[in-house]
């Protein structure tokens, strides 16, 4: 008889992990849904120095112009004519994010202005050109 009673008390001492796992999975889903993912341009750019550089908090759309005047978005090379459509699509996904243009200090200003014009044509007014602090 003692064997049955000790086995029975051992079963009662077990901890049910199901509620804890449910809470962990709900928290995981919450953090995934609320996370703000940064979209990188895809290349490293040597940005020019600026004495008035400010940190941009909500930078979700990154456009990079390399020293060889190539334009990059989302880790792929894009044509300047395709920037407007890409910015409109990314802006529809995240309407609160701003556009950051990372132009290399050796990039031609004409290409950078073409990128700025395409961003404006996409209806974005809160864009910045990225620089480094001195």
3D architecture notes:
This protein is of the alpha/beta class. It folds into two domains: 2-34; 49-133, 2-Layer Sandwich (Nucleotidyltransferase, domain 5). 39% of the residues lie in helices and 19% in strands. The protein contains four helices and seven strands. The protein has helices spanning 2-12, 18-34, 83-93, 109-121; strands at residues 49-50, 59-65, 71-73, 76-78, 98-103, 127-129, 132-133. The strands form two sheets. A five-stranded mixed β-sheet has the order 4-3-2-5-6, covered by helices on one side. The protein has a two-stranded parallel sheet with strand order 1-7.
Per DSSP, what share of the residues sits in E-state strands of 2 or more residues?
15-25%
Unreliable stretches covering 5 or more consecutive residues? none
Helix content bin: 25-40%
The assigned structural class equals alpha/beta
Give the count of structural domains. 2
Q: What about the largest sheet?
A: 5 strands, mixed
């Amino acid at each position: 008889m003692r064997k049955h009673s000790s086995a029975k008390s051992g079963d009662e001492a077990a901890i049910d992990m199901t509620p804890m796992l449910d809470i962990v999975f709900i928290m995981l889903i919450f953090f995934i849904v609320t996370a703000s993912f940064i979209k990188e341009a895809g290349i490293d750019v040597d940005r020019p120095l600026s004495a008035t550089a400010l940190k941009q908090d909500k930078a979700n759309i990154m456009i990079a112009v390399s020293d060889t005047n190539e334009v990059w978005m989302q880790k792929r090379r894009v044509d300047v004519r395709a920037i407007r459509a890409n910015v409109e699509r990314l802006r529809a996904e995240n309407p609160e994010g701003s556009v950051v243009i990372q132009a290399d200090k050796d990039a031609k200003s004409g290409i950078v202005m073409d990128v700025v014009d395409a961003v404006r044509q996409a209806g974005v007014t809160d864009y910045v050109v990225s620089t480094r602090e001195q």
